[in-house]
Each structure stands twice: as C-alpha cells, then as structure tokens.
Amino acid sequence: xxxxxxxxxxWFDVQSVPLSHTFPPENRPGKLPFPxxxxxxxxxxxxxxxLDTIQKIIEAGRNFGFFQxxxxxxxxxxxxxxxxxxxxxxxxxxxxxxxxxxxxxWAHMGSTSYAIDGIHLWRDNIKHLCHPLxxxxxxxxxxxxxxxxxMATYVQEMRRLSFRILEIISEGLGLEKGYFEExxxxxxxSGSNYPACPDPSVTLGVLKHFDHSLITILFQGNVEGxxxxxxxxxxxxxxxxxxxxxxxxxQLEIMSNGKLRxxxxxxxxxxxxxxxxxxxxINPSPNCIIEPAKVLINESNPPLYDSFLYNDFxxxxxxxxxxxxxVQTKD
Length: 331
Ligand SMILES: O=C(O)CCC(=O)C(=O)O
Ligand SMILES: [Fe+2]
Hints:
Blueprint lengths: L41 E3 L5 H14 L2 E5 L5 H15 L3 H11 L2 E3 L4 E3 L2 E2 L3 E6 L3 H4 L10 H27 L12 E9 L11 E4 L5 E5 L6 E5 L2 E4 L7 E5 L1 H6 L9 E3 L7 E9 L5 E2 L17 E2 H8 L6 H6 L2
Parallel strand pairs: 1-2
Antiparallel strand pairs: 2-12, 3-6, 4-5, 6-7, 7-14, 8-13, 9-12, 9-14, 10-11, 10-13, 15-16
The structure holds 2-oxoglutaric acid and fe (ii) ion (FE2).
C-alpha cells in the first residue's frame, strides 16, 4: 500500500488549473455538464436479424458518424483489465514512463506536450502500434509487468471486432467481402488518463478532431467525457455498461463516397473522478490509394472526393503530427 510519504506530487495535483493548462476562451468547452445524447444509436451485435443490424449501422454512420455496440462478444474482463493495467501504467512516475517510452519507441505524452500555443491538454497519453502483434509487442511498455499480456489480448479482440463491424459496413454499402481487410494493415492504440480537474470548464482532455482512420473503437469505462459534434452542437456520449463506442474515420467516409460521415469529437474532463479511455484505430496501410469505392460510382453518383496516397495525406496534413512515423510507417 502506498503511504502519504510515498506520494510524489504529479502535474495534476493542484488546487486550481495552472495557466499552462488553461485554454483561450475560443477553445474552452464552456459551461458543463453537456447533455448526454440518447440519440446516438446503441447496436446489439447479437441481433439475429443481420439485415436489421446492417441497416442500423449504416444509418448511424450516416447520421452521427458514431454508435455504440453491445453484445459484441468481448468479455467484460478483457476491457476492464486493459483499463486497469493502463491505470497502473499512469500511476508510475512520469520519468519512469518517459524512460521506458524512449527506450522502446512508443509515445508518451504527458504534461510536457503542447496541444496549442504552449497550452497542455489535461491528460497523460500513450500511443503504440499493435499490428502485426509479434513485431510490435516487444516495443510496448515493460512495466507494469502484465501490460504486454493484457493489452495483447485487448488489441486482438479489438482488431477482430473492428473487422466484424467493417464487414457489416462493407455488406451494407454493397462492397465485396473483405474489401477493407486487405487495405488496412495498420492498427494502433491510444490510451489516455484524464485526471479529475479542478475546473473542467477551462481545460480539454482532447481538442476537437477527426480520426483519420477507417474505424476507431473506444472503451471509456464508466466515466463520461467524450463529446461529438452533431448539427453544430456538442453532445455527450453516455456510458453504456460494457459497450464500445465506434466511430467512422475520415478514410472510411471517403471510401464510402460520403454515404458514411466522420464526425468531429473531443474529450472534456470532470472534477469528480479520473477518466481512462483506450482507443484502437484501424488505419489504411501507408501505400494505400484512398478513393471512393468504384462500385459506388456511376453517372448519377459521381465521386465526391479525389483519390490520394494515404501516406501523402498523412505527411502533408501532419495528421499525426510528430507521431507520424510512430503510428504510421514503422513496422
Ligand atoms: O478519450 C476519448 O474519449 C476520446 C479519445 C479520442 O478521440 C482519440 O484518441 O482519438
Ligand atoms: Fe478521436
């Protein structure tokens, strides 16, 4: 058991939000809490009516860019253990984490990385590649000792679930079986810890952004904080026990020729409790040409997007900023 003497102050052990974490008014989330939205669809993946599931997922992708899945076949212990081991990791000292990150080549962003003009996000974050697992796992955190084993199980389950959902989407769009699988050989993980914050109205856990993936699956435990921009309003994604939040990435929006939409989202903090989340992204391979699927294009449905090489987009748009090499091109 840790005693008071063991306690070393961390960047978030403060009574008020320091200027270094106070966003300018235009970036602040403003008055909280936000209404959580019961409109974001909750989809039962064990529904025996497959056509019904397909229709609901396509509709959710078109209207919100977000949905939640339940009865997905991933055992609750897999995701809660993953959150637990992430919590253990972030309970370690910053220097210990950074040393390991530096040695093994994963990214650790804590109170030292800027979100905008010298202002920090209210979070600690880890990022690493996940596929192919045998090549990646040796670069993952060494501590906590069970991190590799627990996360390996988690990311494999997420990969399986991602492709299950992508298969449903591909069927719904009328694409050939396996359309997405062969072009999306990149998977990476982003784990975040958003400590309880003395004033959530001036901070953000994550700035508003699109995911430049095909699909993202997020586990947010039982603490809310994710918000989605819908009809120009921020809405909170409510906690549904043992559910995963799924969102359509910009690359899937393009491949679907706009039949599915990617939505901007962000994470806010709260003053009561720490929030942890794990996002896993399925990305196109860097050498993949991104364009609307040919079968969706005809005279009455012209392509709404130009084609491009995924890697060119990532490099020119700085989609992953300084992490580009880590999350996209290293194997
Ligand atoms: O933690 C969250 O709720 C959101 C994280 C997120 O959007 C991301 O990592 O891309
Ligand atoms: Fe995101």
